[in-house]
Design a protein that fits this description.
Elements lengths: L5 H16 L3 H11 L6 H16 L1 H10 L9 H15 L5 H15 L4 H14 L12 H8 L3 H11 L1 H11 L5 E5 L6 H14 L12 E3 L12 E4 L8 H9 L2 E3 L2 H10 L9 E4 L5 H14 L5 E5 L4 H11 L6 E4 L14 E7 L14 H4 L2 H18 L3 E11 L8 H8 L7 E3 L12 E2 L11 E7 L2
Parallel strand pairs: 5-6, 5-8, 6-7, 8-9
Antiparallel strand pairs: 1-3, 1-4, 2-3, 9-12, 10-12, 11-12
Helix pairs in contact: 1-2, 1-3, 1-5, 2-3, 3-5, 4-5, 5-6, 5-7, 6-7, 8-9, 9-10, 11-12, 13-14, 17-18
């Protein structure tokens, strides 16, 4: 009898919890690993992460394959399906040897349903045979095959092909299945770039595994694109384990370092007006305050002081979290509004701001490698409702921008409906005609808007439009 590996047992436990609670897989996995009753080897922890995130990302495709091997999808219970998904993922997407994956898969199923071992063996052997013809078509011409190849819902695969073309869509989906690089931002309110970089380099030089780094620097400054100056304070951690190192722990505790994708850092920088916002800065969708911290850190770099800032979020429970993080990072927030930014009465009707930033609720398709749950929880109709929310926020906030003021709208998605078409619709209204697009030099291929593509070891896909009130 084969012994069930700790990584697979952990992955099964987390995936069951994700299903029961509709929780977020990365956060739940981190919690389970911290609470594990005995130390888990580094390789087991890493493999558990691969399995949890991979199964979560390709859930629908795995279920399609499992269902193909059953007389009816109802032939198995949910806990058995949880176990089968793990082994199916190993066979289809990790290309594991069939005998090993089937053997461990049977043990996984018996772990939750002792009498279902025979069924598991039959199903997994059929899936192993199916790998020879998977994805059951030519991805270069067949949308269904393309979606299966990368574990995407068919509607999303078709939307990506329509948005960016088949070759780029294929690259986007492939990269969405890879581990996300780790970026961090240096908080200028508590430290400086060189001091933080030196701390990581010094730690790496004293690490017993330092010789494995060779000539590879543990930290490098991130460039958004060729020929662009490095983004101030943005660091790419070449070794992802540095994020849990003693140095990183100290920097987080002191509020000197913040984890944030480099595209998000660039958008925060873009949202800061060139002139000091004397009449205040309004942030919509402050959430946990990541961009709040980034913008005040950036303002400190630009103006040598923080901006008078009002933060707004629809979720009242986030107010205390926002205030606690702001205190840790030395960030000033003049006022926190708990309200729906789509409604004009959320704001003081007489209050005018020098600048505002709308971090619009969106589908998040540009961040799928960091948020694998989104892929199968999103519905096609969500795109339209998200776009409507963004448009309504623009219409609600715009009357509060003074002449000469700046309004920045941002998402972390790639769909035209949530991005360019929202801006086009807004600018066609009487309120929107008061504004003009301010071109950005950060993404030269489309100077009207800030747009980044998903890249290996690079940034996520984000969008931003910067508007100026001219009348």
């Amino acid at each position: 009898m084969s012994k069930l590996s700790p990584a697979r047992r952990m992955a099964l436990k987390v995936n069951c919890e994700v299903r029961h609670r509709e929780a977020f897989a990365p956060e739940l996995l981190d919690t389970e690993l911290e609470q594990y009753d005995r130390p888990m080897k580094a390789e087991d922890r890493a493999f558990a992460r691969v399995l949890v995130l991979g199964v979560t990302a390709t859930l629908g495709t795995l279920d399609e394959l499992i269902n193909r091997c059953l007389r009816s999808p109802s032939d198995i219970k949910d806990d058995v399906r949880d176990a089968l998904r793990i082994s199916a993922y190993e066979l289809i997407f990790l290309h594991k040897a069939p005998h090993a994956a089937v053997d461990q898969g049977v043990e996984l199923v018996k772990h939750v349903a002792p009498h279902a071992g025979g069924l598991a063996n039959a199903v997994l052997r059929k899936i192993a045979t199916a790998t020879k013809t998977f994805p059951f078509g030519d991805p270069d011409t067949n949308d269904e095959a393309l979606a299966r190849l990368y574990g995407f819902p068919l509607w999303m695969a078709r939307l990506l092909v329509q948005t960016m073309g088949r070759v780029n869509a294929s690259d986007f989906m492939r990269i969405s299945n890879q581990p996300a690089p780790v970026f961090a931002a240096v908080n200028s309110l508590k430290s400086d770039d060189d001091r933080v970089s030196r701390a990581f380099i010094e730690e790496a030089s004293h690490c017993k595994d330092a010789e494995q780094l060779g000539d590879k620097k543990p930290v490098e400054r991130m460039r958004l694109a060729p020929k662009l100056a490095p983004l101030p304070g943005c660091l790419l951690l070449n070794d992802a384990t540095l994020i849990i190192s003693p140095t990183a722990h100290k920097l987080f505790e002191r509020g000197s370092l913040l984890v944030s994708d480099c595209s998000a850092q660039a958008i925060a920088l873009l949202a800061i007006p060139h002139d000091y916002p004397q009449h205040g800065f309004l942030e919509i969708g402050a959430g946990r305050g990541t961009k709040t911290i980034l913008m005040q850190s950036g303002a400190n770099r630009r103006f040598k002081r923080q901006m008078p800032l009002t933060a707004c979020d629809v979720h009242g429970f986030k107010k205390h979290l926002l205030e606690d993080r702001a205190h840790c990072y030395g960030v000033n927030i003049d006022h926190v509004i708990c309200g729906d930014a789509r409604e004009a009465n959320t704001f003081d009707s007489k209050r005018m701001y020098s600048a505002a930033f709308i971090d619009a609720p969106c589908s998040g398709i540009g961040t799928l490698r960091r948020h694998p749950e989104l892929r199968w929880r999103l519905k096609e109709e969500d795109i339209t409702s998200m776009a409507q929310n963004g448009y309504t926020m623009l219409m609600s906030v715009a009357p509060h921008i003074e002449v000469g003021g700046q309004l920045t709208y941002a998402t972390c998605t790639v769909t035209h409906e949530e991005n360019e078409l929202v801006i086009k619709r807004f600018l066609s209204t009487p309120e929107g005609r008061r504004f003009r697009i301010v071109p950005t030099s950060l993404t030269p291929k489309d100077p009207l808007f800030f747009k980044t593509l998903l890249t290996e070891r690079g940034c996520d896909a984000h969008f931003a439009a910067c508007l100026r009130c001219v009348e």
